């Protein structure tokens, strides 16, 4: 069985969608958060999945923080790392440590709108479509090799809220599909 860790900073709806899938040929062993107030922790408790909080402020720099991340991931024998709303860039050290084994979900059709507020940026720019991208994590910002992308139309009647809801719904479906593709490569 492939051991999976999900890294999140906030709500954790993608974490929950992944954890609740019965067909995944990998086990979500760990939720790792960088914010003690992340709602994702409540989801981990309800799902009976171990969670670890590693807060940014306790570390001098990114390298030291990522050393702590690596230590926990190794303690749990993690093979695959899924970023799901983890609002923090990873250092080259951890990217090298888990080459092609860190994946991220991003709410836009990359390379358009990398970084924060991607849904709002597409909405404010009056795009007629946006979408979701799942990609491998490299040393850049939302720049790694794309695994899956799916577009969604932005209707004139859409509000930022309705678009955000539609994106999240698509994310929960697409992340699972992408993880299944990646898990095939472990076989
Ligand atoms: C998602 O929109 C994801 O694409 C982005 O952060 C958000 C996390 O949502 N990277 P949730 O915490 O999984 O609900």
Structure description:
It is a single chain. This protein is α/β, with parallel strands linked by helices and 187 residues long. Helices cover 37% and strands 24% of the residues. The protein is built from six helices and seven strands; from the N terminus they run βαβαβαβαβαββα. It has helices at residues 13-20, 40-47, 62-75, 92-97, 118-124, 160-185; strands spanning 2-8, 26-33, 50-53, 80-83, 102-106, 129-136, 146-153. A seven-stranded mixed sheet has the order 3-2-1-4-5-6-7, sandwiched between helices. β4, α4 (92-97) and β5 (102-106) form a beta-alpha-beta unit. α1 runs parallel beside α2. The N and C termini lie close together (10 Å). The model has no long low-confidence stretch (mean pLDDT 97). The protein binds 5-O-phosphono-beta-D-ribofuranosylamine.
Quick rundown:
The protein is an alpha/beta fold and 187 residues long.
Oligomer: single chain
Bound molecules: 5-O-phosphono-beta-D-ribofuranosylamine
Spatial order of the strands forming the largest sheet: 3-2-1-4-5-6-7
N→C terminal distance? 10 Å
Alpha-beta content class = alpha/beta
Q: What overall form do the CA principal axes indicate?
A: globular
Order of helices and strands: EHEHEHEHEHEEH
The whole-angstrom Rg is 16 Å
Helix count, DSSP H or I runs of 4 or more residues = 6
Q: What descriptors fit this protein?
A:
single chain; 187 residues; alpha/beta; 7-stranded mixed sheet
């Amino acid at each position: 069985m492939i051991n999976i860790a999900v890294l999140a900073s906030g709500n954790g709806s993608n974490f929950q969608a992944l954890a609740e899938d019965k067909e995944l040929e990998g086990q979500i062993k760990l939720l790792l958060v960088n914010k003690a107030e992340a709602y994702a922790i409540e989801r981990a408790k309800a799902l009976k999945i171990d969670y670890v909080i590693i807060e940014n402020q306790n570390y001098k720099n990114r390298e030291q923080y990522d050393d702590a991340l690596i230590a926990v991931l190794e303690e749990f024998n993690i093979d695959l790392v899924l970023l799901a709303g983890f609002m923090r860039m990873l250092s080259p050290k951890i990217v090298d440590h888990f080459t092609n084994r860190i994946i991220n979900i991003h709410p836009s059709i990359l390379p358009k709108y990398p970084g924060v507020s991607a849904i709002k940026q597409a909405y404010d720019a009056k795009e007629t479509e946006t979408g979701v991208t799942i990609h491998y994590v490299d040393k850049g910002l939302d720049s790694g090799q794309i695994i899956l992308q799916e577009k969604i139309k932005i209707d004139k009647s859409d509000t930022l809220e309705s678009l955000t809801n539609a994106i999240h719904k698509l994310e929960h479906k697409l992340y699972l599909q992408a993880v299944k593709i990646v898990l095939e490569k472990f076989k």
